Structure formats: C-alpha cells, structure tokens
Amino acid sequence: MRLFALAISAALLAVTSASADPIEDRKAIMKDRAAQLRVLAPIAQGKAEFDAAAVMDALQKLNENAMKTDVDALWPAGSDQGDTKSAPAIWEDMDGFKAAMDKFKADAAAAAAANPQDLQSFQAVFGPLAGNCGSCHEKYRL
Amino acid sequence: MSRWRLFGTGILALAAAGAAVLWVASSPVRLDAAELAAAPAGDAARGERVFWAAGCSSCHAAPGATGDARFRLGGGVALDTPFGRFLAPNISPDKENGIGNWSFADFANALMRGVSPSGEHLFPAFPYTSYARMTLEDAADLYAFLLTLPPIAEKAPGHEVSFPFNVRRGVGMWKRMFFDPAPVMDFEDPSAELARGQYLVEGPGHCGECHTPRNAIGGMDPSRWLAGGPAAAGDGKVPNITPGSDIGSWSEDEIAEFLKSGFTPEFDSAGGAMAEVVRNLAELPDEDLQAIAAYLKAVPPVDD
Q: Which of A46, A109, B105, B248 is 20 to 30 A off residue B263, Cα-Cα?
C-alpha cells in the first residue's frame, strides 16, 4: 500500500515537474493550495481542534506554494485556450492579476511569519489570507 | 363602392384588428390595485434581509463594490447579453435620478411585474420574472429599506440594445410567453425549511435567472430548471446546481457553507459572478442558507 502511494506520488511528481503544459501546472498549484485550506479552514471555523503544529505546517506549505507561483510561466499568452477556467480578464488585465497574486503572496508570507500559537491569532492572519481566494476568483476565474 | 375598394377596406380593417390585438396583448399588466392598497406598511429593518436575498447591490451598486459601498445604488453594472448591453439603473432614493418619487405601487409593479411607473415594459435583464414570486410583504419591507439608503444624484447610463429587442412592446409579447409568477416546483407537503428554500431560490434569490438555460429569445427551459448552461451575460459556463451535478454529492451543510464562504467541500472557491452572490448571501442568517440547501437537494436531478 505504501509502495503504491509512493509510486503514485512519484508519478505525479514526474508529471508536474516534466510537464510543459501551463494549464496543468497551474491547476496543480491551485489544487495544492486547496489541500492546505482543507487543513486550515475547518480549524479557523471552529470545526476542528486548534493544533499549532498542523497550522504551521500548512501555512508554511502555502507560503512555499505562493513563492513558487510564477505568473509569467503559468499564465503565458495563448494559454487562455483549452480546458481552463482562467478568465480572459487575466490577459486583458495582467497587471491587475499580478497585483492580486502579489497580495496573496504577501498575506501567505505574513501568516507563516506570524507562527500563530492560538486560535485567535491564527484567525487574525487566516481571514485576510483566505479572502484572496474569493476576491481574485471573482475577477479572474470563470 | 367598387369591389376593389371593398377589398382594400377589408384588408385595412383586418390589419387594424390585428394591430389592436397585438396592442392589447403586449400592453403592460400591473398588480391588482386593491391587493397593493391592502399591503402592510414596510419595515426597513426586515427589508435588509430581503435586500441581501434579492442581491440588489450586485447590479445596482458600483461594479465590485464591497462593504458599505454596496448600499450606494447609483447603478452602472453592465450585463452583456446576446440581446444587447443592459445597464442597471439608479435605484437609490434620489428623487431626480433614482426611485425617490416612486410610490410603493410604482415600486411593486416594477419589481414584480416589470412595469415602470409610466407604464413601459422593463427588460427582463431585471429579474422581475423571479421577483414576481415574492410576497407583497417582502416587497414592502424592501421598499422601506431602499428608501433609507443614501441618495445618489447621478444619472446611470442607458441600455445599448438594438432592434428588434429595443421595442418595449415586444417585451410585452415576451412576457405573454415566458412570464409566470406561479411557483416552479410543486412539492407535496413541504417542510417549513423546504418551503422557505423554495421561496428564496425561485423568488428573491432569482437563482434560476443564471442557472437555468434559455432559448434563442431568452425564455427559460423549464425542463432544465437549475441545470446550468452557457452564461447569459459575460464569459464561461454557469454550473448545473441540481442533484444531477457535482452538488449531488455535497451535504446540505456543505452547500450552506459554500453559500456563506464561497468554499466548496474541496476548498475550491467561487469564481465570477458567484463570488459577488456569496458576498450577499453571507449576510443572511444561517437558517436561510440551510433552507436554500434543502431546496437544492429536493429539485429533480438533471444530468449535465
């Protein structure tokens, strides 16, 4: 079972690192963000117990994800066509899109740097961070 | 009188009769005046809940407005549709540019029958086709609430709609075919929660306006109620929200959570116009979101 999982993740890694398809690459980036939110959001909502180590781990992964998000490589000209929900607004307003992504990056870095040790201080950094999802999707995702 | 002249007169008479029928058939139909007069006075505090359910600010506030800017209803959001570009008017209480001089009857006829105070048909880009299912009590509360908002002394730009869709009498014929204030679903003995959800979705929430596909002249396809399709305004595809879609595997709590925060059970986040809708719905009490979820679970599944 463990071997199987290992093989799967190795295969996935091979696909993501070797892929020349920016649409697949950006989907993988977004899916990875969702995976961290799956840990963080239920804690912020009080549906799961606060766990400082789990929170820090997810915040760090989210920050690493943000740092490796390269808008030029992931949303190159012409990649608006295909199996994608990226909105035409991205290419019509690339500066605005980059500014939105930069804000997410700054909030992700701030949340990881805060290293929250209790629910309240975690919620204080998580609220603004999670707000980026909706505000950016509203303009730039179909 | 020659035979030809008689024939000519007959043709003219027929044409006149035809025109008269069209004129009558396309004339505005208002709410019953006695029922309107009997409606209770509105309560502005209750009206705020109707305001969020009906999503007024999504079109009538400035594009992308957040916070208190959502109460400034000077109009201006553009809906680009196959029929032209519709621009939401100023519905602030400004007497000159908004609805400050409208009586409650004027307001209710616009909201629930798509008829302007001067008797003109309003374009169904304004979802009176759904608002028609609201109660007069909610309309009165909403009217009272809107009058408490800041007046905006700016005229909103007019629609950019070309022939033949710019013929307002044509909208009268369109209403004959597609305007129906009756409920969409017919549930046998619904729970109070389901009935509330039906009211919110089919009435003020006007979910079907985007989530139900339309035919070539903009009428909804009732056999595909809430089954999604190409977006009527803007780019992209509007998702199927019947149990035949992805949502079929969501729990009621997960649907309610999505309506409140915009996050799906997989922690994807609502995009496009739905992000705006979520900002409105987040202002509603949880019980309303649970009611909407109960309704979305109860409608017939339609396959993608």
A: A109
Are B285 and B248 spatial neighbours (Cβ–Cβ below 8 Å)?
Answer: no
pLDDT in tens, A14-56: 444 445 799 999 999 999 999 999 999 999 989 999 999 999 9
Three-state secondary structure call for residue A67: helix
DSSP code of B230?
E
pLDDT per position as a tens digit, B167-204: 899 999 999 999 999 999 999 999 999 999 999 999 99
Which residue in B224, B219, B227, B232 sits closest to B248, CA to CA? B227
Helix (H) or strand (E) segment spanning residue B79: strand B78-81
Q: Which two tokens stand for residue B41?
A: 């006075």
Beta strands B229-230 and B237-238 are antiparallel
Chain B neighbors of A133, CB-CB under 8 A: 262-263, 269
pTM: 0.88
Burial class (CB in 10 A: 0-12, 13-18, 19+), A28: middle
* Nearest residue of chain B to residue A137 (CA atoms): B271
Q: Which residues of A touch B266 (CB under 8 A)?
A: 34, 38
Q: Which residue in chain A has the smallest CA separation from B265? A: A38
CB A81 within 8 A of CB A88: no
Among all residues of chain B, which has the CA nearest to that of A27?
B268
Q: Between chains, do B267 and A34 touch, taking CB under 8 Å as contact? A: yes
Of B56, B55, B150, B148, the residue nearest B97 (C-alpha):
B150
